[in-house]
Amino acid sequence: MAELIAAIGYVFAYCRRRPRSAIEAAELPAVASQVQMLRRATTEGRVRLEKTAYDLPTNRQSVFFERRRFVEVVQEASARGLAVAVADLSWLLGTVTHKKFTVLGDMLQNSGALIWDVSRRRYWDSLPKEEQMTIMSEAARGNVIRSRNIKSGLTKRTKSSKQAAKANARKGTNANSLRSANLALQLQSVVQEVRLQQGDALSPTALAAALNERQIPSPRGGRWSHNSAKNLILRIDRLRKGELAST
User: Residue 79's pLDDT band (boundaries 50, 70, 90)?
Assistant: First the structure.
């Protein structure tokens, strides 16, 4: 008859926001799959779970063996002579960030935890060193691939955001140009009248004063300045030369 493992279950999963209830936590795919494996092991009489501890960080840089929850589970299990049962140790190790893999081996060796891998039906310490290294290598490769996918996704979203911002900027520029062109058409006769009053060499400052005196708003809805009046003169000159489209 197979040995019955008395243990505390440990469930670890990243989530975008912290679940507000146990029901909401159980609906998370990563949580549900681990709980299902632990329950199956219990139903089959391979594991007797004293309790199940859930650790659900929102920060993807969090490492399970540095989490207070894991440390508390290990301490309680050690004090009560229990194992720490994880659904799939390979998956759990695959959540470790690449930078932390250098200390992962030492942690598993020195944590004092008796880790029972439900998927393999084996204690971590009972696995041959070669198998332990294989598991860690596969987990590291999987972590690197996931990290690249995440970075790739972020890069794509960033590029899309930049492209959208550029498109919006172009739309804004085109709209401003159209408003300025239409205003130049409307003010042609007014500018010509001011030109006749001031003389052929119409200065932007004199035009701005004349437009403000007549309470004609600038393209942006405010008062005319030297620069805005200068741009108006240039646009009207282009219109007269047929260089500026009227739409």
Answer: very high
Single-letter residue type at 7: A
Contact 80, 86 (CB under 8 A): no
Q: What are 11's strand-pairing partners? A: 54
Give the per-residue pLDDT at 142.
64
Grouping H, G, I as helix, E, B as strand and the rest as coil, residue 225 is coil
For the chain, which residues make up each domain, given as ranges? 5-127, 168-241
Report the run of H or E that residue 115 belongs to, with start and end.
strand 115-117
Please, are residues 135 and 115 in contact by the beta-carbon 8 Å criterion?
no
pTM listed for this prediction? 0.56
- Domain 5-127 part of CATH 3.40.720: no
- The secondary structure element, H or E, covering residue 48 is strand 47-55
Q: Are strands 115-117 and 122-123 parallel, antiparallel or unpaired?
A: antiparallel
**What is the per-residue DSSP string for 52-108?**
EEEE--S-TT--GGGSHHHHHHHHHHHHHT-EEEES-HHHHHHTS-GGGHHHHHHHH
Which of 199, 168, 187, 196 has the alpha carbon at shortest distance from 234? 187
User: Residue 36 in 3-state DSSP?
Assistant: helix
Classified as helix, coil or strand, 247 is coil
